[in-house]
Specification:
Elements (H helix, E strand, L loop, with lengths): L9 E2 L2 E9 L3 E8 L4 E8 L1 H4 L2 H14 L10 E6 L5 E6 L3 E3 L9 H20 L12 E5 L5 E5 L4 H6 L4 H5 L12 H5 L6 H16 L17 H4 L5 H10 L11 H11 L2 H21 L3 E2 L23 E3 L2 E2 L7 H10 L19 E6 L2 E11 L2 E5 L10 E8 L2 E13 L1 H7 L4 E6 L3 H16 L7 H12 L4 H5 L7 H19 L5 H21 L2 H11 L2 H9 L4 H13 L4 H17 L3 H14 L4 H14 L23
Antiparallel strand pairs: 1-2, 2-3, 3-4, 4-6, 5-6, 7-8, 8-9, 10-11, 11-12, 13-14, 13-16, 14-15, 15-18, 16-17, 17-18
């Protein structure tokens, strides 16, 4: 570990807790998100490489491509951004386990094939996206445990070879310099020829040979066309068919190998007889039991003796130093069956991985997640500039899932993307007395997110202001006109469309003035709701078709007349009229009878009685445009001739005072 170690420094919301190792590209640290205890791996680009602009560009470009690679057997890339000292950093899923190079070899054939098949699944998924590894080795294949305790292979360092290769000068390439682990590099990589997915097939062939024999097929690197010893010669437990599959993967010419990772994986599966696999599994289990019986287990004197051994999963943290074998402490990240058994013998109960969410969100923060195509409102908590906890009652998305997030606070909104970094399951929620949910880490901060979150957290930490008296009175008056858009705008039922639009614009300007004031959350929400109602009133009354539908239900004949005057076509009104009448069976027949009576009275020059019959007919069939035109023309002719005109509004007041002066 160098003097420039970054342990203890921060990378955004993460703390770099422990140095994990270093490679040709960068140094890897175990990082922790303190609010939840969730762990990540952070790879920091070496300073000498970060000083090259082209290397930085390639580093971020590869990270962008790798973020879309999501597979159970790939250590996922979550983010890439500058970190401590401005050095480019890669945020990755932490693969907590043992590299293949540290496994006790040779492995039983069935076990080696199982591990190799998982690695091939990961490579197959990467190749499907056009991503090559080109530096697979026993050091970047890690054996971990999933949440159920099942063994799971994780492939690390996708993209590293491509980034390093971009740093080689033409002169270096001419001298034969290549990037990769010498023992695992395919011949075409040594010669500088074009490389495709069969180079990764070759590397995994070397890995399989190593797992089955305990030795590399060509030592530190391949020379010439010599074939390695057959695996079943070195290890009699290896079936000859399996030897043939591995030697084909190790062919010096790409055309003689398997065409792709899938073909290699299928060949491995076919060459293993199921009965032989079952026998090997049983033999391996007996060997493990015998090994456990032969090992002395020493417990610290202060460690309490357990009543019942409990199997602990790797993600359950166990204090170091309590278990020793021949005086040597078991490493915390041990994931082999032996280590798990020793842990079970030494510790009686699991230790929870992380604390429960406890910090309430700023009052007024609204968060929604896009889950399975629908926006779902969630209850936020533990909010920081880099992420938050989201609680809801539905099914939790998988870890590392990427979700769209919508944030709203004090009238301002923002959308972003978040990665699911930890679950609070139903069992944990009941234990802690909190709601179930998931912790999200913002995956693509962008230039707007951090300032927005900083502003929101600052505003949310301030004491809530007192209610605004003027706005409170306006809201109270507006509540009285909740169901009447005419009353909300203070417009008469026969107002023309220009007046409707003018009043709506004036009301919005009036409300906009309150948005700049310091308001409590409840008033700000009510103000936004009122602005929405004003806009709805404008859309309802400011357009002839929608106003005709509204006025027909209200029986506002003068408003309907304005719609006809505005040029509402009969063919647009007719479908609306049919729907209106269908909801009122028998009304059309009664309306026709009344209109016929009115027509007879008009012929007798009994205009007052005729207008009354017409009005009653239109109350039943208000969207009959021809009747409405005739009724309006007769009213105009009868002005001054009839002492008392029939009403033109059958529901609601003739005028209203606006609650938004």
């Amino acid at each position: 570990m160098s003097a420039s170690c970054l342990e203890g420094q921060r990378h955004g919301p993460l703390v770099l807790r422990r140095w994990l190792g270093a490679g040709a590209l960068g140094t890897v640290y175990l990082a922790e998100y303190p609010p939840t205890g969730h762990r990540f791996a952070v790879k920091v680009l070496h300073p000498n490489l970060a000083a090259q602009p082209e290397m930085q560009r390639r580093f971020y470009a590869e990270a962008h491509a790798l973020r879309a690679l999501v597979h159970p057997h790939v250590a996922r890339v979550l983010d890439a951004r500058p970190g401590p000292g401005g050095l480019p950093c890669l945020l990755m899923e932490y693969a907590d386990g043992e590299s293949f190079s540290r496994l006790p070899m040779p492995l039983a054939p069935v076990e080696a094939v199982e591990l190799l098949a998982q690695a091939l699944e990961a490579v197959e998924a990467a190749h499907a996206r056009g991503l090559l590894h080109c530096d697979l080795s026993a050091d970047n294949l890690v054996l971990t445990r999933d949440a159920k305790g099942e063994r799971r292979v994780k492939v690390l360092d996708f993209g590293a070879s491509a980034i390093l290769s971009s740093s080689l000068s033409p002169q270096a390439r001419e001298r034969g310099m290549v990037v990769g682990s010498p023992a695992f590099i395919a011949p075409e990589q040594w010669s500088g020829d074009a490389v495709d997915g069969r180079a990764d097939v070759y590397a995994l062939g070397v890995v399989g040979y190593l797992l089955l024999t305990g030795r590399l097929p060509f030592g530190i690197g391949r020379a010439g066309e010599l074939a390695p010893p057959e695996p079943h010669v070195l290890n009699p437990c290896v079936p000859p068919a399996l030897s043939s599959v591995l030697l084909r993967a190790l062919a010096s010419r790409p055309g003689e190998r398997f065409a792709n990772a899938r073909a290699f994986r299928e060949a491995l599966a076919h060459c293993m007889d199921p009965r032989a696999r079952a026998a090997e599994r049983a033999a391996a289990l007996v060997d493990d039991v015998e090994m456990l019986l032969d090992i002395d287990i020493v417990l610290d004197e202060d460690a309490p003796a357990p009543e019942v051994p409990i199997l602990l999963l790797p993600e359950m943290r166990v204090p170091q130093g309590n278990v020793t074998i021949f005086g040597q402490a078991i490493p915390e990240d041990g994931a082999t069956p032996l280590h798990l058994a020793l842990r079970a013998a030494a510790h009686a109960a699991p230790v929870l991985e992380a604390p429960a969410p406890r910090v309430a969100a700023p009052v007024g923060l609204e968060v929604r997640l896009l889950l399975e195509g629908e926006w779902v409102s969630v209850t936020p908590g533990d909010v920081s500039v880099d992420g938050l906890f989201a609680a809801w009652a539905g099914a939790l998305p998988p870890l590392a899932a990427r979700l769209e997030v919508a944030l709203a606070f004090n009238g301002r909104t923002l959308t972003c993307v978040g990665d699911v970094v930890r679950h609070v399951t139903g069992d944990e929620a009941r234990t802690w007395g909190v709601a179930a949910g998931a912790f999200l880490h913002f995956a693509e901060p962008g230039p707007a997110l951090r300032p927005w979150m900083t502003w929101m957290l600052q505003e949310g930490s301030r004491p809530e202001p007192l209610p605004d008296g003027e706005l409170a009175r306006l809201l109270a008056r507006a509540a009285e006109a909740a169901q009447d858009p005419y009353a909300l705008l203070g417009a008469r039922p026969d107002a023309d469309f220009e007046e409707i639009r003018r009043r709506a614009s004036a009301a919005q300007r009036r409300l906009e003035g309150f948005r700049a004031r310091s308001l409590p959350f409840s008033q700000r929400r009510a103000l936004d709701a009122l602005r929405g109602r004003v806009e709805s009133a404008r859309r309802t009354l400011g357009e002839p078709f929608s106003r005709a539908g509204f006025d027909a239900v209200r029986g506002n004949l003068s408003g309907l007349a304005r719609c006809v005057e505005a040029g509402l076509p009969d063919e647009e009104v007719e479908p609306l009229r049919h729907a209106f009448l269908a909801a009122r069976p028998g009304s059309e027949a009664r309306a026709r009878a009344l209109f016929t009576q009115g027509h007879a009275l008009e012929a007798q020059r009994a205009l007052r009685a005729a207008l009354s019959r017409y009005a009653n007919a239109l109350a039943l069939d208000p969207l009959n445009v021809s009747w409405l035109r005739h009724y309006q023309e007769l009213r105009q002719r009868a002005q001054g001739l009839v002492p008392s005109m029939p009403p033109v509004l059958h529901e609601g007041p003739r005028a209203a005072a606006s609650p938004l002066p």
